[in-house]
Amino acid sequence: MSIRPRFPAPAEAQAPPTAAPPSAPQPAPEEPEASFFEATTVTATGSKRDTFEVATPVTVIPAATIERLAVDNAASLLRYEPGVDVNGVGPNQARPVIRGQRGLRVLFLEDGLRLNNARRQTDFGEITGLIDLDGVETVEVVRGPASVLYGSDAIGGVLNLIPKRAAFGAGRRLTGSADGRYGEAGDAAQAAASLAWRADRFDGEIGGSYHESSNYEAPAGTFGAIDLPQATEVLDTGLVDDSLRAAFGVALSESQGLRLRGQRYRADETGFGFVDAAEYGVEEEATVRILYPYQDFDRWTLTYEGSALGFALADTLDAKLYWQANGRQLVNDIAIDIGPLAPGWPRSEVLANTLNTTDLDTWGLRLEGIRALGAEHLLTWGVETYRDESRNTDESTTTTVLRFPFPPFEQRIVSTDAVANAPNARNSSNGVFLQDEWTALDRLRVTAGLRWQEVSTEATDTPGWETEGLDFADDQLVGALTATWQITESLNALASYGTAFRAPNIIERLFNGATPEGNGYQILNPDLVSETSDNFDVGFKYRRRDAFFELVGFRNEIQDGIVQYFLSDAEIAALPPDVRAEILASRARFVVQQRNVERLRYQGVELAVGYRAPFGLTVGGNVSYIDADRVDAANPPPGGNYGEKYVAYLRYEPERRRFWAEYRVRHNASADANLAANEPVPPVGSVLPAFTIHALGAGLRLFERAGVSHDLQVTVENLTDELYAEFSNSTFFRPEPGRSVKASYRVRF
């Protein structure tokens, strides 16, 4: 069955049809029947495209799926998708993993604008909880480098959240929704509402959500070397947060408009989550607690949108000027057991408490134009600039508690330090890009693009710091070339090659002190250089009205990859005396430094399939295989990722869609933790255990009257109550919730 009879010309380039003579009317051409699995993307190419027609591997998660999964943040949507995963626990601390790469190697966008934070740790990146999913229309994931369109940090992939734009039915000027949700895990309660209106040339929207939950419980069970005898509270996984958003637009003409959009996020105390080691019978030398007392985020964006402009350089033009402020506090409470001072004496300890306050203000501009040249070429060009101003303070108190079996029995030695662990800094970036989508033949589409970008970091005045020699500057030229060949009307072959880069951020280069992850110590490295990469993708896409199949193989090699290097005892002994004294005072169990290594290699295969039966049953699944290697014989492969993931789903949803039911299963195969030399073995052991998670969901439209619909949804996560954790347990044991039920009620009008 024909789905796409050869590639269509770009929409902007299509010529109007020639009118038929009145005496010989011609029937309108029959439109091919759309596929049930059809989806469009704007992130992959910069212009709206059918995913079947683009060579770039991309995952699109629509609003209906977002509602059906009922998760707290965008990263949690990735658990069931091919080639991607999630790191972190709790309602707002999840972060995306794309093809084994995470943290700062994944660029987090909202409406195409950067959310990455230059003050985040390498492996963490920005939290996706900043953006309220109730205001998101689609989540798009580019699997693989995308530096041509998006610059630095897009070396592993891109997560882009596309905001909702209210759709008004015929004659309607007001629309909205209200949603209430309860989740058994942590007694989580959530309320969300939105309202949109239009009047003549004006339209507006307001919306928001409130979420409150307490610590959830992990089930009893065995996970690697860890054995939990009973259901156990996972500390610091509760949260109270709220989101607000508002947008106001005006149509300047039939093809031009302005839009002002504001958003606000506030989170009270939340943490990384942990289980007391005593609960699973392990005596830890140190207890680490990481908390955010608050996390604040604000953004204002002014957008100009123009289409059918007929300008020499652009048929369509999109300009976004934005300001955002990201502030947070981070607390580390660390208790280190230093043992008895003499045989038979009570155990002594060191208590370290640090408070970091960070404020990051950003101004940015992204200008993007699209110009059709005939029916064969679609040019996308753009200019992007942004500037970060980072200010931070650190306060630390170290208390050494010495205990004796005789008076005074206990003596406390307290020291304080108010020198920041990283200097204040200014990050600047300027870039230009050009991309051509060329319909070379009826069945061949080629896309080629280039981007030049300069980045710089300037250390500014900071009490206690000598900032001379700490500045960084770099510029890079990257490119991409992709091709899609239409073998048949339903089968495309794809191939792509691209280069990408990532500049080191403030924390990687200049952080010096006790690590936020816990009982380690990081030494600054101002000599770090940018990572660069080469990426290859080859594969096939098959799609017809009721089925699809996608197979992609990839290989991504990163040169000068930035890794966390664990120093040996001999290397620590060779450090300057003042540095060794600071390390000794911190009682750190290990010392690390961010360093460039020759090459990191990520390669693998992604397979996804789906079939839609005529009576409303959809079956499908995906398989992901990822292998990571460090091309350096002295070190193990990077990260501690699960290399194999298997997903299957079964969903019944009749054509009228008044109700649906779904079953999902995910299996992650065991994998080596890939511990670096001198890195402590985590409690789970040197192997990340396999796990299998089952979930059920169902939804029902209760009734619909006078244009108002009422829907009820119930989901059951972790149906078999299995004890498990995502790969991030290689540092801490942070298990996921046990079996939990979620119920939500939504009203739309």
List low-confidence stretches.
1-6, 11-24
CATH architectural name: Beta Barrel
The CATH homologous superfamily is termed TonB-dependent receptor, beta-barrel domain
Number of beta-strand segments: 43
Q: CATH first level: which class?
A: Mainly Beta
Provide the domain count: 1
Distance between the ends: 37 Å
Topology of this protein?
Blueprint: E1 40-41, E2 49-50, E3 58-62, H1 63-69, E4 84-87, E5 95-98, E6 101-102, E7 106-110, E8 113-114, E9 136-143, H2 147-150, E10 157-163, E11 174-183, E12 188-199, E13 202-213, E14 217-218, E15 221-223, E16 226-228, E17 232-233, E18 239-251, E19 256-267, E20 270-271, E21 286-292, E22 295-306, E23 316-340, E24 347-373, E25 377-403, E26 410-417, E27 425-441, E28 444-459, E29 472-488, E30 491-502, H3 506-510, E31 513-514, E32 520-523, E33 531-544, E34 547-566, H4 569-573, H5 577-586, E35 590-612, E36 617-630, E37 644-652, E38 659-668, E39 671-672, E40 687-688, E41 691-705, E42 708-717, E43 740-748
Keywords:
43 strands; globular; Maltoporin, Chain A; disordered N terminus; 5-stranded mixed beta sheet; 4% helix; mainly beta; 749 residues; 22-stranded antiparallel barrel; single chain
